[in-house]
Amino acid sequence: MASTSSNVENLHPQILKQVMKELRSLSCDPPEGIKILSNDEDITDIQATIEGPAGTPYEGGLFRVKLVLGKDFPASPPKGFFSTKIFHPNVASNGEICVNTLKKDWKPDLGVKHILLTIKCLLIVPNPESALNEEAGKLLLERYDDYSKRAQWWTDIHAKTNHSNKMESMEKGETFEATQGIKRASDKALDKKKKDKKRALKRL
């Protein structure tokens, strides 16, 4: 994951003002499926959540992403990372995102909104030719169904906010069933004792 050290002091005040202005605008009027997570202490550490697009293996997931502005921003592109684990050809094991907008196609006038929309589009149309996750890239090209199942499985585990709640509910359910089973067994044993006692009294 990227370094958490701040570059606020290294950026020109005018650049900081532009970034702050855009972040405020995005917070008030966010693109569909994208939400900015404000960090007033360090605006060079930009974080957001992206909803998994419908019709993709990432549907239903909520993915947290991070943009780190370097001291040369906007002459140099920010670095992009997925904080949420994701199975995707263009996302490395450490979360680093490989997309041309943050590489050779970068232009200083591209803003945060454009970057976040590009990352969202990457969830819809991955690019296996510039894969950081070679396994995901190979599956996407050769066995799409397997790729889709794996990506969906990772989404279910890591990106669905109710997953932990589901697991907790399942555990509670299993505990309840086990308790009920013990209770039923105990009731049966008690009932058997009562019947045996009645039979013994009848014999007398």
Structural key phrases:
alpha+beta, 204 residues, ubl conjugation pathway, Ubiquitin Conjugating Enzyme, 4-stranded antiparallel β-sheet, 47% helix
> CATH top level of the largest domain?
Alpha Beta
Return the structural class.
alpha+beta
Number of strands: 4
Topology as a string of helices (H) and strands (E): HEEEEHHHH
Distance from N terminus to C terminus (CA atoms, Å) equals 82 Å
Q: Sketch the major β-sheet.
A: 4 strands, antiparallel
The side-by-side strand order for the widest beta sheet comes to 1-2-3-4
CATH-defined topology of the largest domain: Ubiquitin Conjugating Enzyme
| Nearest-integer average pLDDT | 83
Radius of gyration: 27 Å
Specify the helix fraction band: 40-55%
- Shape summary: elongated
* Uncertain stretches of 5 or more adjacent residues: 163-183
Question: What is the CATH-assigned architecture of the largest domain?
Answer: Roll
Strand % is 5-15%
The structural domain count equals: 2
Question: In CATH, what is the homologous superfamily of the largest domain?
Answer: Ubiquitin Conjugating Enzyme
Count helical runs. 5
